[in-house]
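Annual report, structural modelling task.

Input specification for the adenosine-5'-triphosphate complex:
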Amino acid sequence: MIYTLTLNPSVDYIMELDQFTKGGLNRSAKENALPGGKGINVSRVLHVLDVKSTALGFAGGFTGEFIKQFLKDEQIEAEFVEVDEISRINVKVKAEDETEINGNGPSITKEQLNRLLSRISTLSKDDTLVLAGSIPASVAESFYQEAASLCGKREARIVIDAEKKLIAPVLSLKPFLIKPNHHELGEMFGVEINSVEDAVFYGKKLKEKGPENVIVSMAEKGALLLSGKDVYQASVPDGELKSSVGAGDSTVAGFLAGLSKGYSMEDSFRLGTAAGSATAFSIGLCDANKVNDLYKQIEISKR
Ligand SMILES: Nc1ncnc2c1ncn2[C@@H]1O[C@H](COP(=O)(O)OP(=O)(O)OP(=O)(O)O)[C@@H](O)[C@H]1O
Ligand SMILES: O=P(O)(O)OC[C@@]1(O)O[C@H](CO)[C@@H](O)[C@@H]1O
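The model returned the following structure:
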């Protein structure tokens, strides 16, 4: 079973407008409220691709209820530890460009954290835990390391997609997959990634630190997969960018979905890239038709 962990879920409030004026009154033309947070997005895209998962994390208040009900309606298994304050609302403004304001998130007590950790400690060999997204301010930065160590002891696979400081202590535990975008990869090494060659070079350096597989997503420039000694590059299909929110999560979900359907590494990567682009070409996450269409268009080359 694939488990996703979203410590800081959100209601993503997506506002579409033609023009955004900083410091002025803006009125949106269209709004959408969707459950968000990286792990939840991974679970939702896995569901789109017909792969079961269980979403773990914290949820609180009316926003927490919204998130839980939405997942229930989509028939996605979810086990959230109830917290006292409301789950955050992340505002996504889609105008000439994309502006995001992400909330800080609720306080989590020691007892609530322990409840989550004891659930994680029941995972076993055939399970995968996807650790994705930010950590609420009240949770120690070592939490991912703690969760990953528990998985390590039980031989469960770890997938991690988070910022540098949360990833760094998990690398030596040899996660199955890590997916930075090219900016995040650059930050890890204190450099700017300006070309695919740079991304290959630093992707390899990252892989040397422990992870079995590294996907470097590069937005409209596609993605790289480093697996074993192989480096694959995926092209991006043609399409209109609608909102890239959740594109990276969709890449992770597509890749894991491919593997759990028994696809080769290369085709799983193709499915990951197709899901990423299908989400970039949608408001909200991708749907299965779009993913299938794009899957046929993506070219994978070995470098
Ligand atoms: N403008 C785009 N056109 C086509 N495909 C895109 C575009 N932006 C993103 N994608 C697809 O989505 C994948 C992930 O995108 P990106 O590198 O932006 O991830 P990310 O920064 O983790 O995303 P996010 O944090 O917004 O979820 C890319 O590898 C690509 O397949
Ligand atoms: O604040 P974090 O946890 O880093 O990111 C949260 C978030 O921006 O990531 C998802 C897209 O990847 C959104 O659904 C959500 O709002």
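The pocket of adenosine-5'-triphosphate (ligand 1) is lined by residues 181, 217-220, 222-223, 236, 241, 244-249, 251, 273, 276-277, 280 (CB under 6 Å).
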